[in-house]
UniProtKB/TrEMBL annotation, chains A, B:
Source superkingdom: Bacteria
InterPro entries in the record: ArsR-like_HTH, HTH_MarR-typ, MarR/SlyA-like, Transc_reg_Sar_Rot_HTH, WH-like_DNA-bd_sf, WH_DNA-bd_sf
Pfam families: Staph_reg_Sar_Rot (PF22381)
Organism: Caulobacter zeae
Principal subcellular localization: cytoplasm
Keyword set includes tRNA processing: no
GO biological process: response to stress
Protein name: MarR family transcriptional regulator
Length: 149, 149
DNA sequence: AACGATTTAATCGCGTACGATATAACTTCA
DNA sequence: TGAAGTTATATCGTACGCGATTAAATCGTT
């Protein structure tokens, strides 16, 4: 016969199995994708989060730090150092908004704008590396967007 | 009329839109989930990656650093400092394998083992926070496992 | 036995993430 | 108008994540 304590332990063992955890599948997939991007982005001298920041700016520049934080769901404590590095790389310029000196405006430089074409190549190479049908990727993307919003 | 350069730009703008990027959906969802776990794990004094390491050990202890790295898909450069912190917290013990002095064996302490029950509560609270039907979560999990393996 | 190759962890440096806090600029409203 | 409240970034400390490198132990082959 099995005690209540044993049954509770069995339940814990089952529920907590790593392969049952959505959180781990997500964490692990995110790490894998970052690793997959790394060699592609090395050619541009960008890290993966820096690439995401550039995506935001290629969509629309200039943007304030706050707007970028909202788009990327990141705090200023993460963005500020990242943007300083992009500025150091000559891809963006940071300047105070004359209309509201609290705001910092991020603008693409010509070099930053020119990198867009190479980025297109990166996106295509990444798609090839994934080797997954596009509909499956689109479906996964939309499910992820809905998660924990 | 539209020039070839304009068409190429239009294509780049479309393809590179942030909301079209699986990579960003994944990155962002992973960050959100970590943030969602944080207040729950604060009660246990664990970070999110530390919680994942404990999940591995609750499944089966002792394990070598290498086995844990394989389970979690992490390098020793990530795991070693993390495990030292868990040891500092009294949840695990690190010891060299007498049969092969290269290996380091990670064992749960009684305190580490006892934390399993609280972890079960965390997993349940997280599920409530997500507020998503279980089948949807299972489906998402399996899709994530298949991605970029 | 012995020496080169391999395996296992650890160390180091860099770049995130983020909570807590600080600081400066704007807004409100008494 | 001026003090209190709010907002927009920046700074700091902690903890990852990983590539590159190192150090030690083991293995394979002769």
């Amino acid at each position: 016969m099995t005690s209540d304590a044993d049954k509770a332990l069995d339940k814990a063992v089952e529920v907590l199995r790593l392969d049952r955890q959505l959180c781990f599948a997500l964490y692990s997939a995110a790490n894998r994708v970052t690793r997959l991007y790394r060699p592609l982005l090395d050619a541009l001298g960008l890290t993966y989060p820096q690439y995401l920041a550039m995506l935001v700016l290629w969509e629309h520049s200039p943007r304030t730090v706050g707007e970028m934080g909202q788009a990327l769901d990141l705090e200023s404590s993460t963005l500020t150092p990242l943007l300083k590095r992009l500025e150091g790389a000559g891809l963006i310029v940071r300047s105070r908004d004359p209309d509201d000196e609290r705001r910092v405006i991020i603008s693409l430089t010509d070099a930053g704008d020119a990198m867009r074409d190479q980025a297109l190549g990166v996106a295509e190479q990444f798609f090839c590396k994934l080797d997954t049908p596009l509909p499956e990727l689109v479906d996964l993307r939309e499910r992820l967007k809905r998660l924990a919003v």
